[in-house]
Design goal:
about 375 residues; alpha+beta; nine-stranded mixed beta sheet; 5 helices
């Protein structure tokens, strides 16, 4: 097999992990952030470099979270199940255990590669739309009916299946006249070889039976017309209140450094948008920031993951938000920017994986933080 290109997680900052990645996975990572209009780098007075994504912080689409990409072999090894499937059903639901919104997507298994499957298997990701409530999380994939996907999945704590690396583990296969592009065919053949054409043992997933439906609810904070959400304080000339939980930090990073990184990230977004922020307090949230669905229009930044909010392998941070829509079905609560209608953002959150070695580097810590603020 040809040697694979080596990819750095983040510019030329020191101490970063370098891994071998299949070319089509690299393309997939770029596709997942195709909404980004441009990227600017500001040289700060300190030694930090912030990669600022110059797109609407509240634009929805295929936002991706900060991750350390896995090689194909690592991806297969880290997954309890690998398969090729076609989306046949989707529904949003509110989990009775935590009160949060999730989307259950069902895929007809076309080619089992690792694991034992029912004919239709269900995978679950955070986010969705129920009534007037909307939730979004940056590392959740956006599925559409009839999508053909190469899925790498693991079990969550409750036994349900989810993407091993979130959206990066749900590669969309793009066929033309029945044929895949050479790079996707190459990747699929590599996975087949690594799994012995489906003979590699994996989890028995026959308890994760999905369903088929003729009409899909796409959810994930973007409804059928494609409406997203935004904080509306800036319309009144007011700042967005920010709460910081710094109860745990990456090794070697002080509280002063961490809070300075938050200020830099927020200032970076203020420099390229009309948003303003005000840090209200540094406090312990007591739970994962992503589980606090309080409609107080505040941004909660949790600089650690002691509550195991991040379940995707190699993910350095997650960001998301909840929104409210108008029951009237006319002008929505988030107002309009140009011709684009918005829901109102009810709350936003960021959670960082403080235990990852990469996050011990201040440049990487600050850049991941800045990126995830964009999801909120």
């Amino acid at each position: 097999m040809k040697s694979l290109p080596r990819v750095k997680l983040d510019g030329d900052s020191p101490g970063e992990q370098v891994v071998a990645i299949h070319p089509d996975l690299i393309k997939h990572y770029y596709v997942q952030t195709k909404f980004v209009l441009s990227t600017a780098r500001f040289q700060m007075k300190t030694t930090y470099r912030l990669a600022l994504l110059l797109a609407s912080a509240f634009a929805q689409s295929t936002f991706a979270s900060s991750i350390i990409p896995l090689s194909t072999a690592e991806h297969v090894a880290a997954s309890a199940a690998v398969f090729r499937g076609v989306v046949v059903g989707q529904e949003c639901y509110r989990d009775s255990a935590d009160g949060l919104i999730y989307t259950r997507t069902s895929l007809r298994v076309v080619e089992p590669l690792k694991g034992v499957f029912p004919m239709i298997v269900a995978v679950v990701h955070r986010g969705g739309a129920i009534g007037e409530d909307r939730e979004f999380q940056g590392n959740s994939p956006l599925f559409a009916q009839t999508d053909e996907r190469l899925m790498f999945a693991v079990r969550r704590a409750d036994g349900k299946l989810t993407g091993t690396q979130g959206s990066f583990s749900a590669m969309k296969l793009n066929r033309t006249n029945g044929s895949l592009p050479p790079e996707q065919e190459s990747l699929l053949n590599e996975v087949r070889a690594l799994t012995g054409n489906g003979t590699t043992p994996g989890d028995d997933l026959t308890d994760q039976v999905g369903f088929a439906s003729s009409s899909l609810i796409t959810g994930l904070l973007e409804d059928n017309p494609g409406i997203s959400s935004r904080f509306i304080q800036c319309d009144r000339g007011e700042p967005i209140p920010v709460l910081i939980d710094a109860s745990a930090l990456p090794a070697g990073i002080t509280l002063a450094q961490a809070t300075n990184a938050v200020i830099q990230a927020l200032n970076a977004w203020s420099a390229v948008t009309k948003l303003k922020f005000k840090i209200e307090a540094i406090q312990s949230f007591g739970v994962g920031a992503n589980t606090i669905a309080t409609s107080d229009e505040k941004l909660r930044i949790q600089l650690h993951d002691t509550y195991n909010s991040i379940n995707s392998v190699g993910t350095l941070g997650i960001g998301g938000r909840g929104g409210l829509s108008s029951p009237l079905g006319t002008w929505d609560l988030g107002g309009a920017v140009g011709t684009n209608e918005f829901y109102k953002t009810a709350y936003g959150y960021v959670v960082l994986e403080h235990g990852a070695p990469t996050m011990q580097n201040m440049a990487s810590f600050t850049e991941v933080l800045c990126h995830e603020v964009g999801h909120a």
